[in-house]
Design brief:
With about 240 residues, the protein is mainly alpha-helical. The protein has helices at about 1-20, 25-40, 45-55, 60-80, 80-95, 110-130, 145-175, 180-220; strands spanning about 130-140, 225-230, 235-240. It folds into two domains: about 1-130, Serine Threonine Protein Phosphatase 5, Tetratricopeptide repeat (Alpha Horseshoe), CATH 1.25.40; about 145-220. It contains eight helices and three strands; from the N terminus they run ααααααβααββ.
């Protein structure tokens, strides 16, 4: 049914071309582009990519060329030919920098590949127009992880101290109680034992995390480079790790 609709559309365009010979070639090519796109819509992705790729060299109209590039990339992505899809999108972005796709109207895999290609193309442009010199060396240090580890180790140490003190108090009660009630003695003993076990666990956590956090704080990291570039007359900054 879809191919029938496209066939009717193609015939209509051809009829228009007959009435206006000056635009006959562009109209015929537009009809071919739309017809080949129908292969993609019917799930014939390889056929769509091959047909549109063979037509590309003869396309001079920007809209037709952009549509062809888009659906070639879409077809490659649906065939899981990720490198070919990204390559096609990057060529298209080189010719049409404002090219974009509606990520709500294409499958997620196509949207992901297109975003990757767009990011890679942007980085390539940054490298192309980067200034030869100024590259500023900036010392960076990631203190988030060691800060978290140090905080946990301090909390664990405080918890260990509290539990050891509580265990000591319970053991003191256990040894000094004068009642012959065995349940009372068992309760004091059980509380003291649990407190000592909990304190030992917290102390072990502190013993592991504290030296690790200190090591990460004092560890030397390689410097980062800050590259200043200009894109379309505007300054751009890129971190090089």
């Amino acid at each position: 049914m879809l191919k029938t609709v496209h066939a009717i559309f193609v015939l209509a365009l051809l009829a228009a071309a007959v009435r206006q010979p000056a635009v006959a070639q562009d109209t015929t090519l537009s009809a071919k582009v739309q017809f080949f796109i129908s292969y993609y819509e019917d799930g014939e992705y390889k056929k769509a990519a091959d047909s549109l790729s063979s037509l590309l060299p003869s396309l001079s109209d920007g809209a037709n060329e952009l549509a062809a590039f888009k659906y070639i990339g879409f077809s490659y992505a649906m065939l899981n030919w990720v490198d070919k899809a990204k390559g096609t999108f990057k060529i298209a972005l080189g010719k049409f920098p404002d090219m974009d796709i509606d990520t709500l109207e294409v499958p997620p895999n196509i949207a992901i590949v297109f975003k990757q290609a767009k990011l890679e193309k942007r980085l390539e442009r940054l490298d192309t127009v980067s200034l030869q010199k100024p590259v500023i060396v900036v010392q960076r240090k990631n203190v988030v992880l060691p800060t978290i580890l140090l905080s946990v180790s301090i909390v664990s140490a405080a918890a260990a101290a509290e539990l050891f003190y509580n265990g000591f108090q319970q053991y003191k009660n256990y040894t000094s109680v004068s009642t012959p009630d065995q349940s009372v003695l068992d309760s004091y003993y059980s509380q003291a034992r649990n407190a000592y076990i909990g304190g030992a666990v917290c102390a072990a956590v502190t013993a592991v995390l504290l030296p690790v956090s200190i090591y990460l704080y004092v560890k030397k990291e390689p410097p980062a480079k800050l590259r200043i570039s200009f894109v379309n007359g505007w300054p751009a900054v890129a971190w090089l790790f």
